[in-house]
């Protein structure tokens, strides 16, 4: 997505590539094999389905290597409560080509279903509230997310292992 951080310098490898181009399988750049890839808060910004991106990333991983993916939960408790109040649960798209905001958020079930078709085994999936602070109301919210049946956490962390 073009968010190169200048703090990462050699010997780290950085491959510049617009993941929205991943739908064209021939467009992927040449790169070596990696032991792990971190994809933190990226997938929800993509303008294409996630399968071509995850399948493409799998090409860069050694067998047994890990893709760690984090993304907001499309159906977290906060969004459900907003909808019950008649409010739209998502922010509007931004007028920015470089960062239009969240295009599409995903559920835990959707992320589980992507594992095998994209060349991965699902090692772990967790729902956590790692956004926001620890105020009294936030504590109550965290507690409700843990005791209610279902998957209500704000964030999803997935560990995919390359098959």
Main sheet: which strands, in order across? 1-2-4-3
Low-confidence stretches: none
Give the end-to-end Cα distance, rounded to a whole number of Å. 26 Å
Helix residue percentage: 10-25%
Order of helices and strands: EHEHHEHE
Which properties best describe this structure?
4 helices; 4-stranded mixed sheet; globular; alpha+beta; about 160 residues
Summarize it.
This protein is of the alpha+beta class and 163 residues long. 22% of the residues lie in helices and 22% in strands. It has a four-stranded mixed beta sheet with strand order 1-2-4-3, covered by helices on one side.
What does this protein look like?
By secondary structure, this protein is of the alpha+beta class. It is 22% helix and 22% strand. The chain has helices at residues 50-58, 77-84, 108-114, 136-147, and strands at 34-40, 61-72, 120-128, 155-162. It has a four-stranded mixed beta sheet, with helices on one face. β1, α1 (50-58) and β2 form a beta-alpha-beta unit. It is globular, with a radius of gyration of 17 Å. The two termini are 26 Å apart.
């Amino acid at each position: 997505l073009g968010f190169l951080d200048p703090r990462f310098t050699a010997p780290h490898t950085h491959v510049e590539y617009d993941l929205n181009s991943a739908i064209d399988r021939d467009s992927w750049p040449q790169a070596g094999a990696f032991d792990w890839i971190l994809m933190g808060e990226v997938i929800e910004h993509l303008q294409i389905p996630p399968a071509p991106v995850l399948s493409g990333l799998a090409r860069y991983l050694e067998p047994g290597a890990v893709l760690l993916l984090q993304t907001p939960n499309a159906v977290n408790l906060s969004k459900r409560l907003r909808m019950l109040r008649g409010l739209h649960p998502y922010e509007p798209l931004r007028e920015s080509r470089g960062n239009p905001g969240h295009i599409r958020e995903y559920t835990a079930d959707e992320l589980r279903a992507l594992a095998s078709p994209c060349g991965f085994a699902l090692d772990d999936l967790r729902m956590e509230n790692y956004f926001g602070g620890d105020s009294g109301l936030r504590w109550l919210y965290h507690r409700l997310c843990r005791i209610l049946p279902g998957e209500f956490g704000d964030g999803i962390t997935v560990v995919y292992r390359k098959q």
